[in-house]
Design goal:
Its cofactor is pyridoxal 5'-phosphate. The protein is α/β, with parallel strands linked by helices and 382 residues long. The protein has 14 helices and twelve strands. The protein is globular and about 55 Å long. It binds 4'-deoxy-4'-aminopyridoxal-5'-phosphate.
């Protein structure tokens, strides 16, 4: 490529590096001696959202392989042009019944589900209000919608009410957007109170349960199930890529919502359908997650959370270890990596500037010994 092209991009990379914000892809375990302890031990991975370890369950792998053999590696076209997507349709029916909603629709990713759904629901005459710590996919969807966008301080319902009081009367529709478990802080939204508030202002609500699925609720359906809020939230967003151990995202809700998304959600209409192996694996993972095996794994995860969280078992598996300055977070993560622990530094723009952190996510396959090792290493860093 031209020198001018490379120089222009190179300058941007240098600026990122100077600000301590340059990202690069992690090396595979063992490469260059990193990620190994005395050249032997593999990574201890504290970065995965595979909370119940289902991505490696033999039944999930077998279902994925079967779909590969019988349906091929790719779906071949968008769902609207896919006559034999019965695996995807079956998965949707099961997701809908798990979430106790009329219907569900699967997208190629959770990001696509979030970013594609919001612009279908609100437009230029409407209001969309987001929690300040909402995931990038929700922010991008809200921006793309062209609705008036307002942000309320994290989990601050007074802040949300102020916005609704001020803007609701001049908007055709209002949509409140939040996560039930926040991806970078791991805290839980006061959803009962938020739902009561949005009902008072006749607003709609979209809740992203990406990090609650598999972890909360009797059948692992999330915080909405745990709080018995089924039917009071217009749009439920989920992902197949975390506790469901596969890849893809979905929306669950009323039949009319799903039918409109089929017509209007651009990442659904214009993207190739979820690959059959991902759909097959997710279906098997869902069956496990809602069975006794899922309950056992959830209990095990609770024990691991309690061990790391000083006895608190009812919190989420995501623990931020705040480092503050960006360079400090990357230095701590690099030192841990040298000792075989993968706990990545999370920096701006994923989290606010100066709030860089290690993000520890715990899974049911971590052992008490591994948790104690992590704790000892973190103490050394203090
Ligand atoms: N929502 C939240 C809260 C997330 O954390 C993520 C994944 N980082 C997504 C949506 C996107 O899901 P996916 O990885 O399936 O695209």
């Amino acid at each position: 490529m031209s020198r001018e092209f490379r120089t222009a991009l190179g300058r941007e990379l240098e600026e990122l590096a100077e600000a301590g914000l340059l990202r690069s892809l992690p090396q595979p375990a063992g490469a260059g001696g990193e990620g190994t302890v005395e050249g032997k031990t593999p990574w201890l991975n504290f970065a995965s959202s595979d909370y119940l370890g289902l991505s490696h369950h033999p039944e999930v792998i077998e279902a994925g392989c079967r779909a590969f053999r019988e349906r091929g590696a790719g779906a071949g076209a968008s769902r609207l042009l896919c006559p034999d997507a019965d695996l995807q349709r079956d998965l949707e029916a099961r997701l809908a019944s798990w979430k106790r909603r009329e219907a569900a629709l699967v997208f190629p990713s959770g990001y696509a589900a979030a970013a594609g759904t919001i612009p279908v629901l609100v437009g230029a005459e409407d209001l969309v209000v987001l929690d300040r710590l909402s995931h990038a996919s929700l922010i991008d969807g809200a921006r793309a919608s062209k609705a008036t966008l307002r942000v309320f301080p994290h989990n601050d319902l007074h802040g949300l009410e102020e916005i609704l009081r001020r803007y609701r009367p001049r908007s055709r529709r209002a949509l409140v957007v939040t996560e039930s478990v926040f991806s970078m802080d791991g805290d839980i939204t006061p959803l009962q109170e938020l739902v009561a508030l949005k009902e008072r202002y006749e607003a709609w609500c979209l809740v992203d349960e990406a990090h609650a699925e598999g972890v909360f609720g009797r059948t692992g359906a999330g915080i909405i199930e745990a709080l018995g809020l089924e039917g009071r939230i217009e749009v439920e967003l989920g992902t197949l890529s975390k506790a469901l151990g596969s890849g893809g995202g979905f929306v669950a809700g009323d039949r009319e919502l799903i039918d409109l998304l089929i017509n209007r959600a651009r990442p659904f209409v214009y993207s190739t359908a979820l690959p059959p192996p991902s759909a097959g694996a997710a279906k098997a993972a869902l069956a496990l997650l809602t069975s006794g095996e899922g309950t056992r794994r959830r209990e095990r995860l609770r024990e691991i959370i309690a061990l790391f969280g000083g006895g608190q078992s009812e919190r989420s598996p995501i623990f931020p270890v705040i480092c503050g300055e960006e360079r400090r977070a990357t230095a701590v993560a690099a030192r841990l990596r040298k000792r075989g622990i993968f706990a990545p530094a999370i920096r701006f723009p994923t989290v606010p500037k100066g709030a860089a952190r290690l993000r520890i996510s715990l899974c049911s396959f971590h052992t008490p010994e591994e948790i104690r090792l992590l704790q000892a290493e973190l103490e050394r860093e203090e």
